[in-house]
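Question (not urgent): is this output format expected?
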Amino acid sequence: MTTKNQFTAIYKKTKDWFIAWIEEIPGVNTQGKTLKEARENLQEALLMVLESNRASSRTQVRKNQKARKELMEVTLPA
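Got this back:
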């Protein structure tokens, strides 16, 4: 199953690098020599964190038969 989500990417230019992070998810951050490279790296970092979090959660659900899993949809204020 695939879903399309939107996240807020923040880019900050330093002397030699662009640093980047996702506002909504702690731990999703990276850097790049160019803005394009920072964007590509940030997308990869986000996918890796989401995959890791899902895998960890699925392991916990399998271990705990009383756990309940459901999709949640929220609308965030701008």
